[in-house]
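Researcher: I'm preparing a figure for a lab meeting and need a structural model of a single chain. I don't have an experimental structure, so a prediction will have to do for now. The sequence is pasted below. Please return the structure as tokens so I can convert it later.
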Amino acid sequence: MAITLYHDTPSSNCDRTKIALAEKGLKWDGVRVRLTNKEQKKLEFLKLNPYGKIPVLIEDGNVLFESCIINEYLDEKYPDPPLMPKDPYLRRRGRVLVDYALNFVHEPYWDLRGEMLKPADKRNGALMEDKRRGLRDLLQYVEAALDDKPYFLGDFSLTDIAVVPRFLRMETYGALPAPSLPRLNAWLARMKERPSVQAIL
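Model: Understood. Here is the structure written out token by token.
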């Protein structure tokens, strides 16, 4: 059965699932849900996802939402190539890093995003620099977690896929690359070399 993905462009959450689909070599049919038109809040769409968010994936009549959950499903149903280690600790360590990067770091990221969405002449430059510094400070934990590994769990995994759209946005917003985060800078450059990531840039 075909995979159908309800998505939009640009959308970091959708990019997360598009990368996983590409890494698995899976074809999918797309249904565009335009965020700028609030189509994700329409009654018909809310029947698929009561959260009113994208992406939504449908396969064999089964509906899933939340990009990280969708990606776990794809990895379990299509195990070649595997995108998570077998080791139980490493699998949970990956979830910890995703939670940190997406949730704990969210506040300064969201504040910076809010300024970046304003017209250039309406942005608060001092506030933006403060939020960039705050992000870089919080990302020291992520920097340390990389250690000398090419990817967060050693091998490329769903953890890298989960966080890369957020870090690509941080790059667009001027928070990355940063001299204080050399490992993260190198990881982001490495991620951008992958065809699956290039496809969403």
